[in-house]
């Protein structure tokens, strides 16, 4: 992924289902850039914090609720 915002509801899993990546993430890995994670509350994007750059296995405290990510540059 390149810099910018990504709505995870726009991306389908490649496992034969019609499920999307929103409300699915439990952890993150960053390579060189930090990443801000968001939840969609039905009317707006809510910033839930930033995963630092060069993080190998960041575990989210609130699992299965990430709906969008922004790769920071």
Features:
6 strands; mainly beta; globular; 4-stranded antiparallel β-sheet
Walk me through what this model shows.
- 0% of the residues lie in helices and 34% in strands.
- The protein has strands spanning 4-7, 27-28, 35-40, 45-51, 58-59, 68-71.
- The strands form two sheets. It has a four-stranded antiparallel β-sheet, with no helix packed on it. A two-stranded antiparallel ribbon has the order 2-5.
What is shown here, in short?
With 73 residues, the chain is mainly β. The protein has no helices and 6 strands.
Number of DSSP strands?
6
Uncertain regions spanning at least 5 consecutive residues: none
Ends apart, CA distance between termini: 12 Å
Could you tell me the mean pLDDT? 85
Order of helices and strands: EEEEEE
What global shape is seen? globular
Strand content: 25-35%
Can you give the helix content as a percent range?
Answer: under 10%
The spatial strand order of the largest sheet comes to 1-6-3-4
Q: What structural category arises from helix and sheet content? A: mainly beta
Q: If you compute it from the alpha carbons, what radius of gyration comes out, rounded to the nearest whole angstrom?
A: 12 Å
Major pleated sheet? 4 strands, antiparallel
Number of helices: 0
């Amino acid at each position: 992924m390149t810099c910018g915002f990504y709505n995870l509801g726009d991306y389908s899993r490649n496992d034969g289902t019609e499920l999307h990546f929103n409300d699915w993430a439990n952890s993150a890995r960053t390579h060189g850039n930090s990443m801000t994670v968001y939840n969609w509350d039905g009317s707006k994007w809510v910033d839930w914090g930033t995963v630092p750059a060069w993080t190998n296995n960041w575990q989210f405290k609130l699992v299965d609720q990430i709906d969008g990510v922004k790769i920071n540059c």
